[in-house]
Write a structure and sequence with these properties.
Helices cover 77% and strands 0% of the residues. The chain is an all-alpha fold and 169 residues long. The chain has a single domain, classed as Ferritin (Up-down Bundle). The longest helix is centred in the C-terminal third of the chain and has 29 residues. It is elongated and about 60 Å long.
């Protein structure tokens, strides 16, 4: 059961960190929506383009799920600019420019996308742990669902890399 009464919350020392991380990942997911459109438009291979488009739709759902997490712990939904995602997306833009005419374009885009996925996996992994330790069961379940999706996306990108993008024709 979620509570905003920090004095009665197990591991209450994590509450402020949990809130900060929630706001950060909400900002990151919103920033990522723009980046995924660029990645999808830049991808050469159809399976990679489809993977980016699918993840765009997933990300929209993840944003909705994050809003539910905020509500489940009695917080106003508020994002903050995620500097890490900003940097990762700037790097993805550079990759698009540097490799746009290269046969390695999709491999490079996958590398950039997996850096994003690994950041998200780390963030959601921490949030799931904090929610569990503070006994925010609803938040934990919602965050764990997103964590599983991020891991699936990372695995899909690896599959596309190993069967298509990293292979010579």
């Amino acid at each position: 059961m979620a509570t905003t009464n920090q004095a009665q919350m197990p591991n209450a020392h994590l509450h402020e960190l949990f809130v900060d991380e929630l706001r950060d990942i909400l900002g990151a997911e919103k920033q990522l929506l723009k980046g995924l459109k660029k990645l999808a438009n830049g991808a050469f291979g159809e399976s990679l383009r489809n993977a980016f488009q699918t993840h765009y739709k997933q990300t929209e759902g993840q944003i909705d799920r994050l809003k539910q997490v905020f509500e489940s712990v009695g917080l106003a939904v508020r994002a903050k600019k995620c500097k890490a995602m900003e940097g990762l997306l700037e790097e993805a833009d550079e990759i698009l420019e540097s490799f746009e005419d290269s046969p390695a374009l999709d491999a490079a885009l996958i590398a950039a996308a997996q850096k994003v996925e690994h950041y998200e996996i780390a963030s959601y992994g921490c949030l799931v742990t904090y929610a569990r330790l503070m006994e925010h069961e609803d938040a934990e379940a919602l965050l764990a669902e997103t964590l599983a999706e991020e891991k699936e996306t990372d695995s899909l990108l690896t599959d596309i890399a190993m069967t298509e993008a990293n292979m010579t024709v």
